[in-house]
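A quick aside before the break. I want you to see a complete sequence-to-structure record at least once, exactly as it would be stored in a machine-readable document. Don't worry about memorizing anything.
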Amino acid sequence: MLVIPYPAIDPVALSLGPVEIKWYGIAYAAGLLLGWTYIRRLLSTPRLWRGEKAPIDRAAADDLFIFVALGVVIGGRLGNVLLYDLAYYTRHPLEIFAIWRGGMAFHGGLAGTIVAMWLFARRNGANPLSIMDLVAAAVPFGLFFGRVANFINAEVLGRITNVPWAMVFPGAGPLPRHPAQLYEAVLEGIVLFLVLRFATHARGTLRTPGLTGAIFLIGYGVFRIACELFKEDDYAARLGIQPLTLGMIYSLPMIAAGVVAILLVTRGSKTAA
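That is the input. The structure line, written in tokens, reads:
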């Protein structure tokens, strides 16, 4: 009686003959475009940067968008293949390229984006840490829309529960489950954005290269681990170590790296001062 009906959203947003445009692709495109727009806005606000000088000009942000987009797509897909379902893709290698069906791993996307940002910074003579800060501040846009895409695709399922806002997801049996994708959309997308916005605009973290990115690593890691507690048991069963899940295991090094990075960049900033 208390279960909220799952909104039956057709994964296909628009069909043009044999060509299908899916909400999954639209969601990722929206996240990337909004993130790019926000990056350009940060670059147009001199007071946020040390010496009121942004690391790159707004025109270079267009190239950065391309680098990041490639890093997200290639890294996210390979991350899903290698970190979550290698056995399946070994048996069906052509499925690796079927990204329109879903299956993107954040931790793989993060690795791909880091490589892309480093290559971009090297090509443009910019400080890699400042480029990472810039992108980190905008990542929550992509995280929000990515999790909404997971919800539309009825993937990354939550645990069976009797909470009033539980939903029965198609293809997942008759029992209601946590809408874990929406939990992640709120925490990793909205709340993390607000945390980073406070850091960059109220605390001036962009003036210390590496600090905003470090806060992002910690924030995402903490929120991801919290959300993992509500996900389908299968993610834990793959490890056989309750209550740990793969998402938790992959997020713990992010938190550790963020803490170490904060100590290093703040110490370096004091020394420079």
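Two observations worth writing down. Residues 76 and 109 are 4 Å apart (CA to CA). The first strand starts at residue 12 and ends at 16. We'll return to this after the break.
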